[in-house]
Amino acid sequence: MAREFMANAAKIEGLEIMPIPQLEVKREQGIELLAGLLASREQLPKENDEAMEWIALTYAHPEYKDEVLSKIKKYKSFIKNPEELYEKTINSLREYEENAPILDVDDEIKKREETISKYKEQVTKSIEYFRPHVKTSNINKIGIIPCDKVLPRVNMGRGIDIGNTLFIMSHTENPDTFDHEFLHGLINPITEKFTKYFESEEQRKKIFEFTNGGIDGYGDYPVSILNEEIIQTYNEYIKDGGKTPTLSKIKKEFELMTEQDFIKIKSGQKGSEFLRNSFKEFDALKDLQANIEIYYEKFIKDQQILRNELRKRLLDFYRGYEHEKKTKSSLSFEKYFSNNYKQILS
After folding, report:
1. Fewer CB atoms near the end CB (10 Å): N or C, the chain?
2. In the chain, how long is the greatest CA-to-CA distance?
3. pLDDT value at residue 305
């Protein structure tokens, strides 16, 4: 069976498939201190928050320092002096710890440990679908960090791999975010092999054009935007068999939306043409939320929603992968991507 095939680290295309990682719920002192520290400040950092979370992981693990700094330099190039940010963050955590209250996460830890099998099932399903090579994605442990009181929003997630461990922060009320962060560990190492191609001027323009100007929070980084869209397309259209989103799922999405998001989508500053047109009938977010059943029946039920042109192309790309897998049982997503990546934007 497929699960046994994957879990036993079978070989495919002559390469070893990544086995199911060990999953562990693990408190991280630095992350909890950082949450308290930021909450005590009037002005929160905007661009440095994720980098500071990476640094906070080193608070109890100084052996992670070099790798974390290396990742900041690679993925957060707008941070001009990572060493300075590192020292400031660690020193601030030390000062804050002296009078820091103890964060009670016992109930959350219990909840996560009781559902650890669900996390494993999600991971297994993704490995079965993408068939990641160990040489590309060598994750043998996932550290699930209790963070419901740390993350400012339910729909926010964080992930960073250090060595062979992938640390994930996702809210217990939003399991899709856990999937999302885990998939970054599979997808990013594949697309990064083709960074030069996707960051060429021609392809850069296409990525921003096909996503209606990019994605908030990802700036001028086309490969990061591509990664997000590959993962979101899988989570929204592939993972559950391409089923139309349920009313409860759409309702939850709009509950997490802010009035500013609504205004930007309606004015065409973000989001897809579909969302922009469907929002025209509502004066404010509260009107949309109050009439969610009507919205669902009119715009979503029995329809396959594609939020932008890139999602449409990626859905076709996934369908091509699935079709070829039927005749090539040893095909991996990495192999298919390597052979066909230029088709995505052509």
Report:
1. N
2. 62
3. 55
